[in-house]
Amino acid sequence: MAVVAPLLALLWGLPGLCRWLAQPYYPLSALLAAAFLLVRKVPPLCRGLPSQREDGNPCDFDWREVEILMFLSAIVMMKNRRSITVEQHIGNIFMFSKVANAILFFRLDIRMGLLYLTLCIVFLMTCKPPLYMGPEYIKYFSDKTIDEELERDKRVTWIV
To answer: Mind telling me which residue stretches traverse the membrane in this protein (predicted)?
Structure first.
């Protein structure tokens, strides 16, 4: 039952998740976040790249790139401890991945770093994250409305 309930919840929310991911902000952010991995690992793209490996293989990471990617994963894990929503988790992953990619591209070649930085700036200026349109569970009280709400249902506990 512990496996079935989350699976059913995922299937129930799948249409909304697909609409959410189909907005241009998320696929483009994912592409920018994975840009260095794609450039370094896809054989037609990586053949002409410089490499600091002893074997000279341009399609593999060198030790410094592995260190930067491991540091990225540690930072993302630490920052996501305080994230509440899925949007915050994904936003943190995208933001820190773009920063790590910029560092990696600048380390690889200054021209590639400038190109990546330009793409990120154009993306930032043209593509805004979608606004959350779901239910809001926060109530805003004034000195008049708080008494009414407290008296409405005695079984509800309020944190103010």
So the answer is: 114-134
Contacts of 14 (CB under 8 A, 6+ apart): none
pLDDT for the residue numbered 123 = 93
Backbone angles phi, psi at 67, to 5 degrees: -60, -45
**Contact, 101 vs 36, CB < 8 A?**
yes
Nearest to 49 by CA among 104, 102, 114: 104
Q: Is the pLDDT of residue 116 over 90?
A: yes
The whole-angstrom separation of Cα 95 and Cα 92 is 5
Q: How far apart are CA 50 and CA 133, in angstroms?
A: 46
User: Do residues 89 and 83 make contact, with C-beta atoms less than 8 angstroms apart?
Assistant: yes
Tokens of 90: 């994904």
DSSP code, position 155: T
Burial of 156 from C-beta contacts in 10 A (0-12 / 13-18 / 19+)? exposed
Quick one: which of 120, 49, 112, 104 has its CA closest to 71? 104
Give the pTM.
Answer: 0.69
